[in-house]
Amino acid sequence: MVLRKPGLKVAASLLAISMAFGSVGFANETTNNGKSGYSQDQKVIARVDAERAIEHVRYLSEEIGPRPGGLQAEKESAEYIANVLKGYGYKVEYQYFPVADQYIADVAFNDGTSWQMGAAPNGKISKDAVSGEVIFVDGGTTLDDFPADAEGKIVVMPRASTTASYRTQVNNAVEAGAEAVILQSLTGSRGNYGSTFNPSLATPVEVPVYGAAFIQGEWLKERLAKGSFEISLTAERFSNLESVNVIATKPPKGKNKEAKEVILGAHHDSVVGAPGGNDNASGVGLMLELARVYKGYNTDKELKFIAFGSEERGLLGARYYVDQLTQAQRDNIEAVFVPDMVATSYEPAKNLYAMTPNGSTNIVTDSTMEAGARLGNSDILPGTFGSSDHVPFHNAGIPAALFIWMGVDSWDPLVYHIEKVYHTPQDTIEDNISTERMQSALDIIGSGLFDVVRKNVPPLNK
Ligand code: BES
Ligand code: ZN
Questions:
Q1: Ligand nearest to the CA of 312
Q2: Atom of ligand 1 nearest to the CA of 423
Q3: Distance set, CA 167 to CA 39, 159, 188, 197 (Å)
Q4: Cα(462)–Cα(459) distance, rounded to whole angstroms?
Q5: 388, 408, 414, 423: which to mutate for ligand 1, most atoms within 8 A of CB?
Q6: Hey, whose CA ends up nearest to atom 20 of ligand 1?
Q7: Mean pLDDT of 285-289
Q8: For residues 328 and 37, what is the distance between their CA atoms, to the nearest angstrom?
């Protein structure tokens, strides 16, 4: 799928690019500084290694696991990223910022395993465990749906679609004597399976009420099919939280004070209950692998590698980062590359899109499209999308783009395919990471970014 040298795919990529831009640079074209862009690309693509990037994905998604914004696991993720960057010789800083409370449940099994779910703020939130036998109730909007022996049980129900009707399910379960209630989320908002959630209750309820991901409900059903079992529930309200951005700096050659700045930034948090393999350990893995390779090269511009915290809670890390910059500092940023979901194995997500919130092109989309053309890699396409850390930069007038694998059936930006395991416990290396897609993203983003950052001259065709 990925060609590392110009070849068969050149024609297709040039066609795609000329449709988007009208004109393109050719492989081996000479840049303003007299060096071939293609030969500079080789410095990057000969060295970037998807397996190394995926080793970071493994650490973040398996060793640490879910990394909800503001919690301890997100701090561990920040520490891991900072240590890797320090190991490469970069100067690294942490930037802390406040975030809202989290209500998180822990569901523990007798074999020692446990799952994270969302807890209803208005349900019982306690570190004192509630234990019981699990029963599955299909329905629950009427009292008749509950078996006579529901008393003292932990009742799992597929979540009714509206808040009003799942509140009725909860009230009925409590009336039937449930010791705790787990609502199984069915669908996500992007064609994905349902994620964990914090059930919203109108009035306080005495028992724990949790929001499970769709797959967690299915897994509970599978276990029930093998016989009855007990689980143990605890929940905690985490308050006075701080989330964290990790910022590593590569100074410009000669420590030039006038130098422009370029940013490569990926969020390192995940949603509750999701290991965030593709979303977004993949973006962090790509960033760390490029940090390793660029370390050996001089660049005329300043390069910052940033791991943003709490993206999943409202792009909070990137917003905070942009908010604390002076106007002069904002004006000095030439380009922001945001890899977010750069290695899915989901087959229909066939292209790596360089997305801006309004579909405009900029130095980030142009440099990566041109890199794809030089390399004969036609995976990259331009597109229109918000929903990630490029948005606060774009809103502040700073050229930025999101990189994400997607399938788009038409030019209507609302018609797209992303993996069904997005934001779920199944966003794992095994179910959702492709080495080939990671390699293609490393080649394209690595070459485009290197072209922008290495020389203080406009990139190709500007
Ligand atoms: N990686 C996603 C963004 C994404 C998903 C872009 C699917 C395009 C298609 C990101 O981590 C995310 O989920 N963002 C949140 C942002 C929100 C909390 C402001 C989202 O879109 O729900
Ligand atoms: Zn993401």
A1: 1
A2: 13
A3: 62, 10, 19, 14
A4: 6
A5: 388
A6: 387
A7: 99
A8: 31
Nearest ligand, measured from the Cα of 284: 2
- Tokens representing 233? 């529930």
> Which of 231, 227, 34, 228 has the alpha carbon at shortest distance from 117?
231
Is the C-alpha dihedral spanning 433, 444, 418, 198 positive or negative? positive
Distance of CA 458 to the CA centre of its chain: 31
Rounded Cα gap, residues 22 and 120, in angstroms? 53
Q: Give the pLDDT confidence score for residue 257 in this predicted structure.
A: 87
If pLDDT is split at 50, 70 and 90, which confidence band does 9 have?
A: very low
CB 311 within 8 A of CB 404: no
Q: Which atom of ligand 1 is nearest to the CA of 391?
A: 19
The per-residue pLDDT for 188 is: 95
Q: What's the 3-state SS for 130-173? A: EEEEEEECCCCCCHHHCCCCCCCCEEEEECCCCHHHHHHHHHHH
Token code pair at residue 119 = 């807890």
User: 382 CA to middle of ligand 2, Å?
Assistant: 18
Whether residue 280 is preceded by a cis peptide bond, meaning omega within 30 degrees of 0, is yes
pTM: 0.92
Q: State which of 192, 279, 353, 387 you would mutate to test the pocket of ligand 1, scoring each by most atoms of that ligand within 8 A of its C-beta.
A: 387
Cα–Cα distance for residue pair 138/146, rounded to 1 Å: 9
389 in helix, strand or coil? coil
Q: Give the pLDDT confidence of 220-275 residue by residue, as tens digits.
A: 999 999 999 999 999 999 999 999 999 999 999 998 889 999 999 999 999 999 99
Is residue 233 within 8 Å of residue 180, measured between CB atoms? yes
Query: Using CA atoms, how far apart are residues 101 and 13, in angstroms rounded to an integer?
Result: 47
For ligand 1, residues with CB inside 6 Å are: 190, 279-280, 311-312, 314-315, 340-341, 385, 387-388, 404, 418
Ligand nearest to the CA of 189: 1
* 375 and 443 Cβ atoms separated by less than 8 Å: yes
Q: How far is the CA of 376 from the centre of ligand 1 (A)?
A: 30
